[in-house]
Amino acid sequence: MAQAFRSTRVLTAGGLAPATLLVEGEHITEAGAWKDAPAGATLRDFGDAVLLPGLVDSHVHINEPGRTEWEGFATATRAAAWGGVTTLVDMPLNCVPETTNVEALEDKRAAAKGQAWVDWAAWGGVVRGNADALPELAGAGIPGFKCFLIDSGIDGFAWVDEAELRLALAKLRSTGLPLLVHAEIAGPVRAATEALRAGGADWRKYSTYLASRPDAAELEAIALLIRLAEEFKTAIHIVHLASAQALPLLAEARDRGVPITVETCVQYLWFAAEDIPDGATEFKCAPPIRGKANREALWAALEEGSIDMVTTDHSPCPPAMKRRDEGRWDLAWGGIASLGLALPVLWTAMEQRGMGLNDAMVRVGKWMAGGPARLAGLSGQKGVLVAGADGDIVVFDPDAAWTVAPEHLQFRHKLSPYLGAELRGRVKETWLRGEQVFGADGMVGLARGRELVRR
Ligand SMILES: [Zn+2]
User: Fold this and answer.
1) Rounded to an integer, what distance in angstroms lies between the CA atom of residue 126 and that of residue 346?
2) What's the 219 CA to ligand 1 centre distance in angstroms?
3) Ligand 1 center to residue 24 CA distance, Å?
4) Regions of the chain where pLDDT drops below 70
5) In angstroms, what is the span from residue 384 Cα to ligand 1's centroid?
6) pTM of the entire structure?
7) If you measure from the C-alpha of residue 100 to the centroid of ligand 1, how many angstroms do you get, rounded to a whole number?
8) Ligand 1 centre from 314 Cα, in Å?
9) pLDDT given for residue 1 in this prediction
10) 433 alpha carbon to ligand 1 midpoint, in Å?
11) Is-contact 21 386, C-beta < 8 A?
């Protein structure tokens, strides 16, 4: 049965405009002028609510199988649907087994069955010694790979040095798939940490943690990655850029045509080091949240187009692992839980910076939908409201004012640095491939998300 989704504010190629989206089965078949439903189609008139494409979050740690007590498909995808995200791409390290070969990918596929509220895909892992497994993993339908240049915190996910990166890139070159990299290098972090320990630094202080992960770790990693992307002519993607000091380096490389793309995360655009209380380890992530001037430079880079996209890096753990009682930044597990909050947080932040709704939603479409969809090989299918795309539609009320409380958090553990944040904008409904999955009364129907297998 055909459905006509209509509103006076639909995100089109030209910005918010009155439009009607015709959805037949799972796909949008027509995106055109505001009009009545054609004969036989059901009209869904959303008045002047904003209609956005389902958002795409290409950086999420789902942790299942193996660490489902940290997070899992059911809870992560539920949080996604609540927040208007219809596609998640899972990071390969926090699950057991880690997604570093085809058998592990099959385990993940089995674990996801019947649990996902939204569509998903899985990044594969590049770790020390698995270069030979990469072509087969690529052939199994993943959109790309992820690696670390520094300890990942997970024993089964060993970081790679330049020699191992070279082996991996030589294998990846023919696949056309991107390599996503956690761009911090160990040397500067080790040196800074040792100096802080020798000086008797107070590890309850946020300033100590910040000093232990200096900008230099990101700068050195990014310089290496630019060199390798240029040499191997293989797409490299910098995940969670936190240091604005790396921006000139990246802009210069991109101007020269080096195939390198960049994301930053919602937490680096919302929080600032100056405001993080000592001992508040729910803010711990790596690279760390840096200062206010750095934050504003990241915003400027997004605006100029030298950062391509915004993801969440949603990475929860059981609350006890945050060791909030001691408040020791060196002992707490790193990772910020935020899935479901990105859209209102970003809209609130843009409004605070004087941006109007139209300009803000155009940027949301680019940074949180179209951009990550392209990275994950899903251009034209996800992240855009055009004919041929999946019928993933988000109904957003930009005026709702609310304060983040535990009942708003749909992921497994209700610990997040966003608790208490005063936000604007709420997702009212989320539709996945033509069927509603979230609405006023919560989740709707069955969890029928599926894996987006690259063909
Ligand atoms: Zn991550």
Assistant:
1) 31
2) 18
3) 36
4) none
5) 25
6) 0.98
7) 16
8) 7
9) 80
10) 27
11) no
Written as six digits, the tokens of 79 are: 């949080």
Task: Give me ligand 1 centre to Cα 336, in Å.
Answer: 9
Which residue in the block uniquely carries the two structure tokens 């290098």? Answer: 185
Task: Give the Å distance between the CA of 91 and the centre of ligand 1.
Answer: 7
Write the CB contacts of 348 (distance below 8 Å, at least 6 apart in sequence): 421, 422, 423, 424, 425
Residue with tokens 């749909």: 410
Q: Where are the alpha helices (DSSP H) in 272-421?
A: 292-304, 342-352, 357-365, 371-375
Q: Separation of 45 CA from ligand 1 center, angstroms? A: 38
Q: How far apart are CA 348 and CA 354, in angstroms?
A: 10
* Tokens linked to 263: 């994301």
- Three-state DSSP class for residue 320: helix
Distance 94 CA to ligand 1 centre (A): 9
Hunting for tokens 């797409």 — which residue is that? 235
Please answer whether residues 119 and 449 qualify as being in contact, where contact means their C-beta atoms are separated by less than 8 angstroms: yes
User: Given this model, what pLDDT does residue 422 score?
Assistant: 98
Between the CA of 14 and the centroid of ligand 1 the distance, in Å, is: 33
Residue with tokens 């940074």: 367
Give me the pLDDT at residue 455, please. Answer: 85
pLDDT digits (tens, 9 = 90+) for 60-81: 999 999 999 999 999 999 999 9
Q: What is the three-class DSSP state of 113? A: coil
CA count, 13 A, side-chain hemisphere, 67: 19
- Residue 377 has a pLDDT of 98
**DSSP tag of 298:** H
Ligand 1 centroid distance, CA of 279 (Å): 22
- How does DSSP classify residue 451? B
CA 29 to centroid of ligand 1, rounded, Å = 35
pLDDT tens profile 161-205: 999 999 999 999 999 999 999 999 999 999 999 999 999 999 999
CA of 159 to the centre of ligand 1 (A): 14
Instruction: Specify the 3-state DSSP secondary structure of 312.
Output: coil
